[in-house]
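Please, structure for the following, as tokens.
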Amino acid sequence: MPGAKASVLERFAAPLRLREFSLPSSVEPGGALVRTEMAGICGTDVHLWKGQLPISLPVILGHETVGRIEQLGAGLERDWTDQPLKIGDRVTWTSTTSCGECYYCKVKRQPTRCPERRAYGIGQRCDHPPHLLGGYAEFHYLRPRTNIFKIPDDLATEAVIGAGCALITAIHGVERICIERAREAAAEEGTGKMPALPSLWRDCVVVQGAGPVGIAALAVARRGGARQIIVIGGPKHRLEMAGRFGADLTIDIDEIAKPSARVDAVRQLTGGYGADAVLECVGLPGAVTEGMEMCRDGGKYLVLGHYCDAGTAQVNPHVITRKQLQVFGSWSSEPRHLGVALGFLQATSKAFPFAETVTHRFSLERANEALMTTANWQSAKSVIVPSFK
């Protein structure tokens, strides 16, 4: 049986190990085998490598993946949007699957909180067949109930991976802080159907962080009609990217190093009031305390960047009551958000050049270098291309 190479996380904070696994002899009903074209290096991968989320090892990292279908299991004939699937189709998929039957899936309609939810590249061990359950590999096995999406021919693989899980995470998060407005809009239209993209019409928005999640949140806010968007972060090449994606103003954390000074700068730039909405996209605990102070009275604060446990922050509850803040958390995304994201990328490729964020390509043999390039903020987006030499 032919084998497939994969880069494996066997110990936290240790180099990934290149291994070879047997390809499955057959694909179970509802499953698929995909040849990996490109896998993104997400900031979450760095946190996982550092051991900041309690996952069971060994794992093939990589939860942002595009590939071409090699085998289709019996009964798998259409993707999540009901388009027909065939061998050779270029596809992507949600990194997670949920049971669809539990309290959170069926009653509360929050499948991201399903206790049976499992994620490729995070919660799927590779030491048992079918092994290939992460993107840092030549092949990827998709279990039954995976939410597969056929990629339109006019949408570049680099755009899908450049946006990665950051875009669907941002769409979900901004949707949560705009849910009341969205319901009002649906009621006014008389359709009862929620809009595809959340609206931040005429809002002043601050985005904390200029990494992939911050850039994606910026794009969603701009598309959603925000009046003014301020991005806080660094280094300079990331702030330049924020400018290309429509940021009105940027604040360089290297130039304005004190949190209190950054809060003052935001207030000055917003007429002394602060932002209508502040989106935390950086994953550092201290940013939460700082960001709450950047909100105007009655504003909204979204914690979006803390997928892994990076530690605690000292928060004064009085700030929340005094400002009458609405504080939101958002975890990952749902399948529908990937559908929205693919449509978003198709419609806005010139305005938001996600494909151009792919700045560094690596082979599987150089996966450790790819991980460290992302960890050290040296790239806009690093990717693994198994066929890359």
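The longest strand covers residues 32-40. Residues 287 and 378 are 21 Å apart (CA to CA).
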